[in-house]
Amino acid sequence: MEQVQVTFRNMSTSDALEKLAREKADKLQRLFPRITSCHVVVETTANRTAKGNVCHVRIDVSAPGAELAAHHEPPPHTFDDAYSAMRTAFDMMRRQLEQHFDKLRGDVKTHGEPLPGFEATYEPAQGKEGPHKTKTAPVH
């Protein structure tokens, strides 16, 4: 992965937050070596709560076949400091990357053929109950 970009908006640059972002991005890179780029945006809004500014974190990651984005925005009337917002956003991104690379590897669970001796049937007269597995007699 090329250089990790960390951008701060509506707030002063924080060496500690930048270091945390780079550490988290490096960890993602170790877990998913095919990541090509990572951009982290840490932003505070003008809406101050009694405990301070509300912090938003957005992470954009490029990987083969995908442009993924994770965005953490705390619910209204709650307080998330920048550190917990960043940890939450990186956790969201890790889950998205796991799903993406599982899909690329073909590890996604699919519905295969019915088991031998069973056949999926749907009889409209059954109403909303839907498809049922019924035992069919073996063919000799």
Task: Explain what this protein looks like in three dimensions.
The protein has helices spanning 15-31, 82-105; strands at residues 5-9, 37-49, 52-63, 66-72, 118-121, 132-135. With 140 residues, the chain is an alpha+beta fold. The protein has one domain (5-105): 2-Layer Sandwich (Double Stranded RNA Binding Domain). Helix 1 runs parallel beside helix 2 (82-105). It is elongated. The chain starts with a strand and ends in a 5-residue tail after the last strand.
Describe this structure in a few short sentences.
Residues 110-140 are annotated as: Disordered. The chain has 140 residues and is α+β, with helices and mostly antiparallel strands.
Topology, element by element:
Blueprint: E1 5-9, H1 15-31, E2 37-49, E3 52-63, E4 66-72, H2 82-105, E5 118-121, E6 132-135
Parallel strand pairs: 1-2
Antiparallel strand pairs: 2-3, 3-4, 5-6
Element string (H = helix, E = strand)? EHEEEHEE
Q: What coarse outline follows from CA principal-axis ratios? A: elongated
| Alpha-carbon Rg, integer | 23 Å
Q: How many DSSP-defined strands?
A: 6
Largest sheet: 4 strands, mixed
CATH fold node name: Double Stranded RNA Binding Domain
Distance between the termini: 60 Å
Q: Which blocks of ≥5 consecutive residues have pLDDT under 50?
A: none
What proportion of the residues is helical, as a percent range? Answer: 25-40%
Give the full name of the CATH homologous superfamily.
Ribosome hibernation promotion factor-like
- Neighbour order of strands in the largest sheet: 1-2-3-4
What count of helical segments does DSSP give?
A: 2
Strand content: 25-35%
Number of domains: 1
Structural class: alpha+beta
